[in-house]
């Protein structure tokens, strides 16, 4: 049965949304957080294991130093207070995909304390998101449900568990309640998540591929009558793994909760799940509070001690941050604010930069990635970087145009061939004979024929009326199968009509 929803505009007019995000970032270390088991995405199930990651009796965890350093770097980027002493705790809960049946996390003594992140919205507005903590923990394994629809637990007759991911290091970034967002709450959430993705990639601490589960978020949202009213009861939608999904989750939950409150009902504090197919959330279990997890310090792990000297060493290793990089590239490329924002919104900054590095102009790189390639990605419902074409390929197409070997039409056909798996641009051009007609004699003959076939247009051109020029160019293009250069055709026509 479909849940009742209020129109979004009505919901945010009547109620003040307060939301929070718990972002899980999987670190790209070579080994797990507490053991030397190798990490590899997509490996054979249950092959990346040690006695520690299996929780076998007598096995003892040892902290991965690289994971701690990665966490400190993220804490610095988020302006967090770095704790000199932090502690791991056991979070007790029934985890069917966690062999030891508890998670090793951080509770009252996290590595990274309070901080903030300023995010820029599409119209240039900057919104500050307050950070409560960014703590270190290990991930659970992965359940696969068999026999149900789309791998869901509903209707499944049995489940399989893969422990490869169990023990992989995570950083969980927890925001404070985010107030004052109003109707822009979904937009702010999306911008914040993209900023986190860009930061961890710049730091080199995570691949941040949401489709691979490297990065995901729990979305908390509650409504209240006004900004001075007490916080409402929140729902928590678990493990949303796309930017658009996070934005849609907030929109849906605001509409759902507003409809319940409008009828005098009460919001149930519960976990929910986002269903991409139905574009809706569905109820899960009643939400547990911290006391229910019975946290206590892990007796097998000593406290983590971070010296001020070590923090300074890591601070000196910090790379250029995304916002600084964007401003630098904008200046180098000569892009307007709108042009840069279009590139950022298309998630094409890395691709454009790599294409320019491969020899293309910034304008040409932007044109391809935000034009033909963006349309192709949308048609296939994939990201730009998932398309089977590289920045080097795009730069090569641009060079072929600059060399006069391809016109725009042939360049698009060449790119289509690359996307179809026919090889590199040069190979596609050679295979189909796409190269622009460079034989002056053949081109002149085509122009003569076009003028002879269209004497009325030829007379207009001779009299100085240049409007019909397109018809002659079109006729020449047809005769040469689109392989003529329009500028060369125009030049020849002008020479011939002047006689």
Question: Could you walk me through the main structural features you see in this protein, from its secondary elements to its overall organization?
Answer:
The chain is α+β, with helices and mostly antiparallel strands. It folds into 3 domains: 8-314, no CATH class; 336-408 and 420-428, no CATH class; 440-498, Arc Repressor Mutant, subunit A, CATH 1.10.10. The protein is built from 17 helices and 15 strands. The strands form 4 sheets. Strands 5-6-9-1-10-11-12-13 form an 8-stranded mixed beta sheet. A 3-stranded antiparallel beta sheet has the order 4-3-14, with no helix packed on it. The N and C termini lie far apart (79 Å).
List keywords for this structure.
single chain; Arc Repressor Mutant, subunit A; 3 domains; 3-stranded antiparallel β-sheet; 17 helices; 15 strands; transferase activity
Strand content: 15-25%
Q: What low-confidence regions span 5 or more consecutive residues with pLDDT below 50?
A: none
Principal-axis shape = elongated
- Helices and strands: which structural class? alpha+beta
Report helical residue fraction: 25-40%
How many β strands by DSSP? 15
> Distance between termini?
79 Å
The number of helices is 17
**Radius of gyration over C-alpha positions, nearest whole angstrom:** 29 Å
As an assembly, this protein is single chain
Strands side by side in the biggest sheet: 5-6-9-1-10-11-12-13
Work out the count of structural domains: 3
Mean pLDDT across all amino acids: 89
Q: What characterizes the major β-sheet? A: 8 strands, mixed
């Amino acid at each position: 049965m479909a849940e009742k929803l209020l129109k979004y505009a009505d919901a945010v007019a009547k109620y003040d949304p307060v939301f929070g995000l718990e972002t899980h970032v999987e670190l790209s270390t070579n080994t797990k957080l507490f053991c030397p088991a190798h990490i590899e995405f997509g490996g054979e199930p249950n092959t990346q294991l040690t006695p520690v990651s299996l929780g076998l009796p007598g096995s003892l965890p040892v902290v991965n130093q690289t994971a701690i350093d990665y966490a400190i770097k993220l804490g610095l980027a988020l302006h967090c207070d770095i704790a000199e002493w932090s502690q791991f705790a056991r979070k007790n809960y029934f985890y069917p995909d966690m062999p030891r049946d508890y998670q090793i996390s951080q509770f009252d003594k996290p590595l990274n304390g309070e901080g903030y992140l300023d995010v820029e919205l599409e119209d240039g507005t900057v919104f500050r998101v307050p950070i409560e903590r960014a703590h270190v923990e290990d991930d659970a394994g992965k359940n696969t449900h068999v026999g149900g629809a789309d791998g869901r637990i509903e209707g499944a007759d049995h489940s399989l568990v893969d422990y490869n991911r169990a023990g992989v290091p995570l950083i969980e970034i927890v925001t404070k309640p985010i107030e004052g967002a109003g109707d822009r709450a979904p937009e702010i959430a999306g911008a914040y998540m993209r900023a986190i993705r860009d930061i961890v990639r710049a730091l080199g601490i995570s691949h941040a591929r949401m489709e691979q589960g490297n990065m995901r978020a729990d979305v908390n949202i509650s409504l209240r009558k006004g900004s001075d009213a007490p916080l409402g009861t929140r729902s928590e939608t678990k493990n949303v793994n796309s930017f658009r999904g996070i934005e849609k989750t907030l929109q849906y939950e605001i509409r759902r909760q507003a409809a319940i409150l409008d009828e005098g009902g009460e919001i149930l504090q519960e976990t929910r799940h986002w269903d991409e197919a139905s574009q809706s959330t569905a109820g899960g279990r009643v939400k547990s509070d911290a006391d229910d997890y019975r946290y206590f310090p892990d007796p097998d792990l000593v406290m983590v001690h971070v010296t001020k000297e070590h923090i300074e060493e890591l601070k000196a290793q910090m790379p250029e941050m995304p916002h600084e990089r964007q401003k630098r590239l904008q200046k180098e490329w000569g892009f307007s604010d709108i042009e840069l924002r279009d590139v950022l919104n298309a998630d094409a900054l890395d691709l454009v930069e790599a294409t320019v590095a491969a020899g293309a102009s910034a304008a040409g790189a932007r044109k391809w990635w935000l034009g033909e390639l963006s349309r192709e990605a949308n048609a296939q419902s994939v990201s730009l970087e998932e398309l089977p074409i590289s920045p080097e390929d795009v730069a090569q197409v641009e060079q072929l145009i600059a060399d006069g070997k391809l016109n725009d039409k042939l360049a698009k056909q060449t790119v289509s061939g690359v996307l179809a798996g026919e090889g590199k641009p040069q190979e596609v051009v050679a295979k189909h004979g796409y190269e622009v007609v460079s034989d002056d004699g053949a081109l002149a003959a085509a122009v003569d024929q076009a003028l002879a076939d269209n004497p009325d247009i030829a007379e207009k051109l001779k009299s100085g009326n240049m409007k019909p020029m397109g018809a002659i160019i079109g006729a020449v293009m047809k005769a040469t199968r689109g392989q003529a250069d329009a500028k060369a055709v125009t030049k020849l026509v002008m020479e011939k009509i002047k006689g």
